[in-house]
Amino acid sequence: MMVSAPGDVVLAALPEAPVGSLETIGTPVLWTATIAVVIALLPLDFAITRRPHAVSLREAVGWPVF
To answer: At residue 3, does pLDDT exceed 70?
Structure first.
């Protein structure tokens, strides 16, 4: 038993979670779907925006705002 002196700060111990009880929404299916969508969007982006052009100031400011 631990006795504290007057004026000492005593912190309550938080209950420890059992090992392996980490809850997450990051399932393997969700990760696979996310990676598949990103990989599919890359070629689509290159196909749609493949025409080179001089970037105006308005366009340069517009994309980060979007």
So the answer is: no
Threshold 0.70, pTM exceeds: no
Token digits for 56? Answer: 């105006």
- SS3 letters across 2-66: CCCCCCCCCCCCCCCCCCCCCCCCCCHHHHHHHHHHHHHHHHHHHHHCCCCCCCCHHHHHHHHHC
Q: pLDDT digit string (tens) for 34-44?
A: 999 999 999 98
Residues 42 and 48 sit within 8 Å (Cβ to Cβ):
no
Phi, psi of 29 (to 5 degrees): -65, -40
